[in-house]
Amino acid sequence: MKDIKKNLERHIEVVQALCADETQLENIQKSIEVSLESLKAGKKLLFCGNGGSASDSQHLATELTIRFIGDRPAIAAIALTTDTSALTAAGNDIGFDRVFSRQVEALGQEGDVLMAFSTSGNSANIVKAVEEAQARGMKVVFFGGGTGGKIAGMADVSLIVPSKITAHIQECHILIGHILCGGIESGLGYAD
Question: What angle do the packed helices 166-187 and 22-40 form, to 10 degrees?
Fold first, then answer.
């Protein structure tokens, strides 16, 4: 029981630190605004990440395409982490560092938004996806942790969780992601 309580308290400390960071609160708002600008222009959101961040990408893309709070029209969001044929072909034929950038090359258009997840901010395949998105005139919203790594300085909006513990970073990514989904629904007139 003591370890469980300690774990919960550490999680709460990270959330409180995030809540006290005015820059990050502003960046969460900016991520909602960037997403709404894209969606209102008939564009889409593309999500990518590795491991647990791949799951987070799928989770949030699904919240948007299917439903988050209530019934409403579908919102254009694609998780680049779900097509096993594309992922394994790219990994085998052109290298794992291009599994997402190749899909951004195929699917990304000017005005779209790339939602890039990397707890370290240094994942080579996420860096390349960000570079490809920028080359295509897309905006980049980055979900990171710790110091933000390389990607924090590349993105249009960087959402940095103040922790070095991967589990706590990913927990906050879903929390921020749910705030983002709610903000998008509300901004599109689908939520109270």
Answer: 50
